[in-house]
Amino acid sequence: MAPETATAVSNVVLITVDSLRADATAAYDETRHTPVLDRIASRGTVFDRAFAGGNWTPFSFPSILASRPVFTDDGQTGVRSVPTLPSVLSDAGVSTAGFNAANGFLTSHWGYDAGFDTFDPFATTVTSGLYDRYLATHPTVEAWLQLLTAPVRRLRSWIRGDIDDQPFLDASRMFDVEHAATSFVEETASPFFLWVHYMDTHTPYVPAPRYIREISRDLVGTHRMLHAHTRTGLGWDVGPRTLAELRTLYQAAVRQVDASIGRLLEALSAAGVADETAVVVVGDHGEEFQEHGHLAHYPKLYDELIRVPLLVDVPGAEHRRVEEPVGLDSIPPTVTTLMETPAPSGWQGTSLASGVLGGAPPADDPVVSVTVRGDEVTSQPIPRAPGDGDLLVSVRDRDWTYIENVDTNGAELYYRPADPTQQDDRSTTPTPTEREVIDRFSSVAADRATTIRAQATEASPEAADDDLETRLEALGYR
To answer: What range does the domain containing 292 cover?
Structure first.
């Protein structure tokens, strides 16, 4: 099929959403309420099998912003030793800006400011005062403040004639990021590249009450939802009721981000650049709700943590869905292709622009993801080097998921069409077909493990400053 005619792309907006699993959006689960993302999906390209490079931010983002797998260059997380997407675009004369909603793993400490003309991680402002510092590390208190102040906010919004979407405390930095991004769009001439990273869907989930009401349609029961924060904060068992509440809070946070993305798209239209701006939306990893025994995103490689939404909307291109598996390392070369900028030879990913524009779909190659697990699944802090625990590698194609602990030689195999939640391990008594898949994927896993170990270093990661460590603690990484 010959590529269709699409509007020339002058600008690209890359929107990354922390902990956003694919089935949290309407493009992948029609029961979800994400109207803005649904509009993006309905006019753009939906990648049905997009897989993250790891189960949490520092393991996934080297692929997203530098098209390189984690650990394969210097044995540590971060992008300090590789050319990043904003660096390549900036060298080509593109104006670049990056706004990260206070994820401590996406700061200059790990090289993520490289190439940005304007960069603000909002990672220290939340700890500038004792009050903010306390709330950042006590999300249960913040959640109850959101609830108790909701009537006052609604009355104030009614008097002003607007909506009550402003939280009591912008602890997720959503409005900081949104306002910074909007100002950049208003003040910057084309061409530009804008990266925005949201944190609302990361634990703890503290959406504005209006979004809890919107997604649950239960005006009384939604106020009981914050009961979940008390139980989890005290370390009590998570039963069916609490789990349902957590899921509701999570989906409300997704809708909160969805609404913010809508306001950003409105800013593009108001600036007169929407028709020449491509929009890419992706989750950096997923989130678990006890599918395999835990909450959040501990070191595992199942689909609830690795399968993420990937939407690419290019003005003038037709809507389509792509079934071939793709890794997030394809994002940087896709952006440079759309902006007609050469990609560095060291980038690993392959551009998806042809498939988006109606040309050849991506190659049907397997996607590799990795994580490092300490003595216990829930041990903290996050490992920052391969030697911090056992190395786990997963390999996925359209149908199969293979997971191997390369340090213990333990392996799992799942056939996703019949077992979408990956509960039935077929590696113990494999059929000849399953044995062939295991042999083929174990070779791929061994290659990645060999590359990581060849680059691993004995040096410990440089210690972060106190403000950054406090922010990481607020995210649960102690």
So the answer is: 11-365
